[in-house]
Amino acid sequence: MRILITGGCGFVGAFTALELVEHGHEVVCYDQQAVRNDVLERAGPGVVVVQGDVRDRARLASVVEQHRIEGIAHTAAVIGQDEGAERPDWMLDVNLGGTVSVLETARAHSLRVVYVSTATLYGQHPDLHVLPEDARPEPVGMYDTTKLMAETLAISYHKIYGLDVVALRPGYVYGHHNSTGGYFLDKVARGEVIDQPVGADLPIDVTYVRDLAQGIRLAMTVRPIRSRIFNLTGGVLRRHGEVAAIARELIPSAQIRLGPGIQPHSHLRGPSDITRARTELGYAPGYTLEQGMADWFSWLRVPQPVPVPIANTEAG
């Protein structure tokens, strides 16, 4: 397939491009920054990088037509609860408005869409029970609220217009170039000192970025399917302290102090039930937390090239 990835130069987008190219697909990374990082460099010439804002429907349609796109993996979003609380208009504009742009472009050109949602939308569940896809969403912040709104809209496009849409709900995505979450490895590799008096007991159901990329590929390519919403995590509850311990094992010089307990106002939920993704998509997490952290470390050990901005020479 010829697949366009919104936010394709970002954390999830770049690894999705690498995954798709490794499985024989052609990829166009559509990104406002249009910077080819080391992940995209590894993907090689099978990835074309094009500058564009996901909210610019005319530009998006022009790129879709020019490259004869067959599917869109929609990873572009403003992330973070603090960012959403401080700038709700902007987050709504990008996360919801950008999704409308993608869906309308897909509807006009009969494209398949994979929307990357979030398991954060399940909300607070301190009893840590397993969460299936039909659990009631109870967002806790502006970020997951906008993601739920966009997911609901995407599924409505399937119901109303018959658009071939799939929504994926990952949780605690970590790996090379991640920008949120406390996973320590990148910071201690730079020599930073981590000193957090509380937090080691926080339960987390993590998703390694390469597993998420696998899930996006499967959601884009596997048909027929019965469902349209899939949990996509490791499916196993771990603790934040385990992340710190693995980071210390990988980097013995790491200075990490993470005290016991859970910080007030932390987001508490149990593991996601990934049975549906296993059964319908053939998804299977390829990385345990230990394996994912080790793979991430292998990226950090390679000298990083200076990111190269891509000159936009296309009309549109």
Word description of this protein:
With 316 residues, the chain is α/β, with parallel strands linked by helices. It contains 11 helices and 15 strands. It has helices at residues 11-22, 38-43, 57-66, 81-86, 88-109, 142-161, 185-189, 209-221, 240-250, 275-281, 289-300; strands at residues 2-6, 26-31, 35-36, 47-51, 71-74, 112-116, 165-169, 173-174, 193-196, 203-204, 207-208, 229-231, 238-239, 255-258, 308-309.
Keywords:
316 residues, alpha/beta, seven-stranded parallel sheet, two-stranded antiparallel sheet, 11 helices, 39% helix, 17% strand, disordered C terminus
In short:
With 316 residues, the chain is an alpha/beta fold. Helix content is 39%, strand content 17%. It has helices at 11-22, 38-43, 57-66, 81-86, 88-109, 142-161, 185-189, 209-221, 240-250, 275-281, 289-300; strands at residues 2-6, 26-31, 35-36, 47-51, 71-74, 112-116, 165-169, 173-174, 193-196, 203-204, 207-208, 229-231, 238-239, 255-258, 308-309.
Per-chain topology:
Blueprint: E1 2-6, H1 11-22, E2 26-31, E3 35-36, H2 38-43, E4 47-51, H3 57-66, E5 71-74, H4 81-86, H5 88-109, E6 112-116, H6 142-161, E7 165-169, E8 173-174, H7 185-189, E9 193-196, E10 203-204, E11 207-208, H8 209-221, E12 229-231, E13 238-239, H9 240-250, E14 255-258, H10 275-281, H11 289-300, E15 308-309
Parallel strand pairs: 1-2, 1-5, 2-4, 5-6, 6-7, 7-12, 8-11, 9-14
Antiparallel strand pairs: 3-15, 10-13
Helix pairs in contact: 1-8, 3-5, 5-6, 9-11
